[in-house]
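Changelog note: in this version the structure field was regenerated for every chain. One regenerated record is shown below for reference.
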Amino acid sequence: MDIRTFQPGDETAQVTVYNGAACLFPGFKPSKVEDVQRRTRARGFDPTARFYAVGKGEVVGYCVLEPGQGRVSFPWCRRGHGAAAGPLFEAAVRSARDRGLDKLFAAYRADWQAVHAFFEGNGFAQAREMVNYHLDVTDLPTAATRPSLPISPLERADLPAVADMGRGVVRLPDDKLEAYFFDNPYFPAEAVSVMRSKADGSPVAVGLGLERPTYADVRQIDVKAPCFRLGAFGTEGLHVKRVNGLFSFLVRSPEVATPNGLSLLTEACEGMTDGSVHALAAQAPSDAPHLVAFYARFFREQGRFPVFERSLTDTAAVAELLSA
């Protein structure tokens, strides 16, 4: 058995491997060749970060590393070829280290226990859950009244304050935030609002509201799928699901998350004017308890999925991982 990187035409074999290996898992949705081709033909695709196990001239397994995110896939293998899983995963981990990544993560459905067990057996630990929420617009909280503090559009000068608010939640480094907010092809900077101190105008909270009729209706998507939602704080730089009516916020002081969050929710809803939003969507990481408490109080939980992480900076631990 050989391990090699991507070659044109591997898309069909990859789909065959995945559909055959994952079809018995809860909530399985078949992969399509055109979906894989869309990724392999996209600008920036890195063929050296996708690994394939080949036996007797045919692909029997694969594992995907997403270097820009640090995300790694489960090593999917044809039935009867499970021995390829270890070498495939080892190739992905070595590639991540060679690229200078300091951490890997994986995210799968909460009910795919065998996949969880694989990552846990290879040195990963659950870092958090991503919790999905929705709220019918007819159920908006009556407490969402006019804000007591001024709200205005995000400015570039606000980014250091936003970075500080997002410590432990926002996943991008500070120097990537300007491009994320001001050059994002999927939402305009005007979608982001800042609540400011009356004393000095400094940001005390920031909120984001998305309205795009072509994006998915939160009531019609698989809420258990491990999909990060576009615009939700904590999903920056990741592959995301574009959902219409997404609301998300951060606060400088967690103890005032409720009043500030309600004010920003009002602001976001008043900016949704084309009539396409019938239900709001939200997503929050479980290790931000003040955000989870807000959404749990005013939204309805739809589902959640775990995120597993593994450090690559512990040399001894990584050596153990690669020899497992």
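Spot check on this record: Residues 52 and 306 are 26 Å apart (CA to CA). The chain has a mean pLDDT of 94.
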